[in-house]
Amino acid sequence: MTASTLVFSPGERILDTSGAPLSGATVNFYLAGTTTPMAVYADSGLTTSLGSSITTNSGGLPTSDGNTPTDVYVGSAAYKVVILRADGTTVATYDNRLGALVIPSTTAAALPQNPNVIKTSAYTAVAGDRGKVLNCNCSGGNVVITLTSAITLGDNWNISIRHIGSANAVIISTLLGQTITYPGNSGPNKVLSAYGEGVTITCDGAGFHCTAYTPTLITSKNAFFTVSSRLSSPPAAPSAGERHILQGTITGTWAVSGFVAGNVVEWDGVSNWILYTPVAGWMVYVTAESLYTVWTGSAWSDQTGMPTPSSGFLQQYIVSNQQTTNTSGGNATSGSWGTIPLNTVETVQNAISGASLASNQITLPTGSYLVFAVQPFWGTYASKTRFKSTTTATVLYSDSVEAGFSATGPLDIVTAGTAFLMGDFTVAGATETFEFDYRVSLTRTNGLGIPANISGVNETYARVHIISLAYLQGPRGLVGATGPSGPSGPSGPTGPSGGPTGATGPVGATGPAGATGATGPSGGPTGATGPVGATGPVGATGPAGATGATGPTGPTGATGPSGGPTGATGPAGATGPAGSTGATGPTGPIGATGPTGPVGGVTTLASAPTTDLSSVSTVGVSVTGTTTITSLGTGASLLRFVKFTGVLILTYNAASLILPGAANITTAAGDTAWFSSDGSGNWTCLTYLRAAGRPLNTGVSDTITKGYIAAPYNIGTVSAATLTPDPTAHNYQYVTVTGAWTLAVPASDCAIDILVTNSSATSLTVSGSYTVPSSAYAAYNTTGTNKFIFSIERINGVSSVVVRALQ
């Protein structure tokens, strides 16, 4: 039987690049890779020749005479097709098209040629190598495999190349810079660097593609892998890729091969055990024993009893001076240090175990602590506080504050101030006792705080907030030490070398502002406060990556070639080795809680309904804008010092945003506050200080040092009615009366001046509740357009009115 194959499927049309049938096109046939014409035929027996070219009709069908459609057959030789338009321009060229398969003339069975070929030197892969596996033994030096032009090899040509050497590399290269695409990259070359690594490359007629990849077997470069068990003699029926650590007295074929205890062996899936000599630092997971073991250079050291990362919560203790409604914080006495009353232990999340309060003194157990304390003063002049250990006499002092008064007005106007104290200290003994003291320049009744007198709300004055540092930094460990050292702060450009004004550079000590001080190279370094953010230890979760180690079983695909190239699917297991990066994780558990340490400096946040203080790493936060804030985020166990640059509303929430006085706060530019969050992310305002130098709810107005402008309130017109002065309106009011009217007593204590203008003849009746001399309003008359000032006072329920005529 003649071997032949049909070139075009029945009814197949010759189309141009836009998909339209080509009329009058010429299809020319040549021997593959040449310009030698090759005959084609109209029948499968190859008896009716069509010459070496055919022409298409108006419908694009191949014809025998330019009009009559015909089949086109070729023999067993590979061929090339060139399609030309009617005008002679080329449409397409297809080379290395396979001819018909040759049918054996005998019924005897034939064995396929073994596609596995050993290469020990440079070799150029040609069309005849299609489907072969080139096992490249590069032990004596690099082996270069060059791929013939993709155009010559044609579409659907493929070859597999493996590294089977003990050293050096296999380099796969292309001609004319044609590209090999493979996972993660592409280029004219691909390097197989270690034993067992292999690729299957497929040609599409224009370039090459890596369609399968087998990773390297164990090498000194791989620090982590998995073994099944530890044995002294080989198992009876090992699986391909199965690995073991040799131990004890080695017997069987392992002993015959000269293997020794400590070696690692791997079954190649056919007949041999591959031997690996361990390198110091290899970490192996023994599946049968569920543990890690490390080769120290002389022995395997099992990694048992790895510590669990420690954890903990921010611990705190808050005490305060709380009094009932309308009760002051206490009297202040000058001349010596006095003890500030502390009578309430506030309920907090994660309180410090062992801390207690008795007789205005705080007792703390062994440890290191951070303390924040505030005390308001009223009318005491220069005032100061201290936090003192009564056990060791260690003292922390606050800044001095001014709480004096001014005598420039008609009345003495007493001013208030708040002393703020912050510092850290250590309790070395089993316990230590502390007290919060004050010293003032002027003795003053109620000098330790004026009540706000809000019904149902306790008065809060002094507050001491103590934070345990036991969990803030976490256990110190090697991994934690490598954490970010924190930004060093912009040092700013060195500026013009000739600029003598560079001496002003130190102003840049505030960090980023140093960038403008281009002439001052020393300005930026203050950013070095960042080191507290030692976050490195969190890598402790790394060991989970160990599951990837099962991937190496993929090499079993290597047996595929005996049945054809489909065996190449085995390399899919290649993803396993990626798990090796997790091996460094076990050292991480030390110091896992380190990240709770905040970074120094100030970060700016724009106000929003949720102004997330946990979104920044610095203690200091500058909040801009005027948007009402209802939440500070949900970050747990944090401490932030906040400064507001504008007027906005902080919305009180009894669970998640706890504010002094249990009420909303309207901020002013320059106001500052300390906020802390508990382990659940609920925020508490520890202290709030007005920009004017006074705390919230002191019941004391700001000192008036200059005159002020008062806008009068227009009552309107009163005719034959009763006028009851409104204390909630302005202190200055005015009204026009058009008929008989009655002046009633205000509903609450006040001082009001009312300008009364007569519109017409009127009469006045004053309520009998006034204490009024008979002459107090005798000057009042009913003449139209006359004006009078009624000065009204109500003090502790006693009311009076004085009338002054203005004409």
Topology (SSEs and partners):
Layout: E1 5-6, E2 26-31, E3 40-41, E4 49-51, E5 53-56, E6 62-63, E7 73-74, E8 79-84, E9 90-97, E10 116-119, E11 123-125, E12 133-136, E13 143-147, H1 150-153, E14 155-163, E15 170-174, E16 180-182, E17 185-187, E18 189-192, E19 198-204, E20 208-214, E21 224-227, E22 229-231, E23 243-246, H2 252-256, E24 264-267, E25 273-276, E26 283-286, E27 291-295, E28 300-303, E29 315-323, E30 338-339, E31 344-345, E32 356-358, E33 361-378, E34 381-389, E35 395-397, E36 401-403, E37 405-406, E38 413-414, E39 416-440, E40 459-468, H3 478-481, E41 599-606, E42 618-624, E43 639-644, E44 649-650, E45 657-658, E46 665-666, E47 672-677, E48 683-689, E49 713-718, E50 722-723, E51 732-737, E52 741-743, E53 750-758, E54 764-766, E55 787-795, E56 798-805
Parallel strand pairs: 10-12, 11-13, 12-14, 13-15, 16-20, 21-26, 22-23, 41-42, 42-43, 45-48, 49-51, 50-52, 51-53, 52-54
Antiparallel strand pairs: 1-7, 2-5, 2-8, 3-4, 5-6, 8-9, 14-19, 15-18, 16-17, 19-20, 23-24, 24-25, 26-27, 27-28, 29-31, 29-40, 30-39, 32-33, 33-39, 33-40, 34-35, 34-36, 34-39, 37-38, 43-47, 44-46, 47-48, 53-55, 55-56
Uncertain segments? 106-112, 406-411, 473-481, 495-585, 587-597
Helical segment tally? 3
What percent strand? Answer: 35-45%
| Amino- and carboxy-terminal Cα gap | 141 Å
Gyration radius over CA: 47 Å
**What share of the residues lie within helices?**
under 10%
What is the number of beta strands? 56
Largest sheet: 10 strands, antiparallel
Structural class: mainly beta
Instruction: Indicate the overall shape.
Output: elongated
Report the mean per-residue pLDDT as an integer.
79
